[in-house]
DNA sequence: AAAAAGTGTAAAGAAAAGTTAAAGAAAACG
DNA sequence: CGTTTTCTTTAACTTTTCTTTACACTTTTT
């Protein structure tokens, strides 16, 4: 999420990041940003310090009260003092205007890496694929991914520990909430169906087969 | 709700109105204002024309699409042309900066009187469908929606967290205040009846089935 | 290199879940 | 206490989802 009151700067950042496959939400004030945050989670927040209404530092504080989303402060050079103080409390990094998009993306990626693996709340996001346990919806790169209940549960399990391998038994017992009784192609079929649905929306492969063991998200 | 991007003006209006016992919400952009509106309803909206992001007239249009909340345009003198046009479509009144607080309050009270019956607080509104927990009445696009108690409670639950999926168990335990004992078509029948009633008043679908999981408001 | 074990997927049939009208039961009303 | 309204149950039907099957394919083991 980009929180920046200057419309043209906001749009500039939005365009640049979108071009690099980030999915962004634009907010034009601190309170708007906080409201967005109450509706859904974000992987990272870019926060301008000079905002109408609630000031940037107050916003950062509020955000961190709620959830530990990485915050990168975007500020003008002359706000340095305030910045330093913020870094010691709420913010995770800062960048001064004007900046190179390259640098911004690098800093974003550092923060995202930090945060990965920390499955939080009702929203699991991994590699552009996100799953919302509250609304039972899923999406890839912003496009809606329609899943049936079993498909959803399987993907939910795999995504909650990416790279970890789950046996068919693990999967069965999680998604069916029942004992697993040996050989059964059911899971293979569901995996296949999930892959087919994902294929239509992205080139990236999300489910990997681990021969003789099971499956994992990647 | 005060929609005004200039912080000091927003605060000025806020302070003045608060002092006169109005309860105000501050928004600093059109999109923020619209977001507030999707969460709750307001008795009246003060709308600045010059806004970052979405322009004031566009905002007014969007508001009126949703519900008939009185809008008073707050603008600079030189935006007169646009203002006149707005008055013919979306806005209910206008006032030019700089203005006397006295005048503003007078205009507000005119609009509120127009709109009187302003039941506040226990009102949930979402997408033109509103539910009043105090009077146990509901309406769609201004038309009355007559509901029985169970229907009301079900809709109330779904509407209080739009997009969130509620299982039959959730619904049963909320609306019946009792334990849910497995398979039961009762809820389906009520959902069906609610839909049938809504159908008569609107084309829009408000209750969505999430196969195998439950239902949600959309 | 052949055999065995494991996986992928289309298609068909089975099962589960949902919708709705209508009738009977229960509750509320006057 | 009868009438009216609301709620629940039933049942026929529709839709969606799940499982099975069959066969092709891949990897591992012998």
List the keywords.
homodimer, 218 residues, alpha/beta, Rossmann fold, Arc Repressor Mutant, subunit A, five-stranded parallel beta sheet, four-stranded antiparallel beta sheet, 8 helices, 12 strands, elongated, DNA-binding
Q: What is the CATH architecture annotation of the largest domain in chain A?
A: 3-Layer(aba) Sandwich
- Largest interface between protein chains, with number of residues from each side: A-B, 21 and 23 residues
**Which class do the helix and strand fractions of chain A yield?**
alpha/beta
Mean pLDDT of chain A: 83
What topology, given as strand order, has the largest sheet of chain A?
A: 2-1-3-4-5
Residue runs with pLDDT of under 50 for 5 or more positions of chain A: 116-120
Q: Give the name of the CATH superfamily of the largest domain in chain A.
A: Response regulator
Strand content of chain A: 15-25%
Element order of chain A: H for helix, E for strand: EHEHEHEHEHEEEEHEHHEE
Query: What is the CA-CA span between the terminal residues of chain A?
Result: 24 Å
Number of strands of chain A: 12
What is the approximate shape of chain A?
elongated
Number of domains of chain A: 2
Q: What is the level 1 CATH name of the largest domain in chain A?
A: Alpha Beta
Helix content of chain A: 40-55%
Sheet with the most strands, sense and barrel status of chain A = 5 strands, parallel
């Amino acid at each position: 999420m980009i929180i920046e009151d200057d419309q043209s700067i906001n749009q500039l950042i939005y365009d640049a990041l979108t071009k690099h496959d980030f999915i962004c939400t634009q907010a034009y004030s601190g309170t708007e940003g906080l409201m967005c945050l109450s509706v859904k989670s974000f992987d990272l927040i870019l926060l301008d310090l000079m905002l109408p209404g609630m000031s940037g530092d107050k916003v950062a504080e509020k955000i961190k009260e709620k959830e530990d989303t990485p915050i990168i402060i975007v500020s003008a050079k002359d706000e340095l003092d305030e910045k330093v103080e913020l870094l010691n409390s709420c913010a995770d990094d800062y960048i001064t205007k004007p900046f190179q998009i390259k640098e911004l993306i690098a800093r974003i990626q550092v923060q995202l890496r930090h945060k990965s693996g920390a499955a939080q709340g009702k929203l699991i996001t991994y590699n552009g694929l996100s799953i919302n346990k509250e609304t039972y919806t899923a999406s890839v790169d912003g496009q809606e991914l329609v899943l049936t209940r079993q498909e959803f549960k399987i993907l939910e399990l795999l995504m909650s520990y990416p790279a970890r391998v789950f046996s068919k038994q693990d999967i069965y017992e999680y998604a069916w909430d029942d004992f697993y009784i040996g050989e059964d192609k059911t899971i293979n079929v569901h995996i296949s169906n999930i892959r087919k649905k994902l294929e239509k929306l992205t080139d990236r492969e999300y489910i990997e087969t681990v021969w003789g063991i099971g499956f994992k998200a990647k």
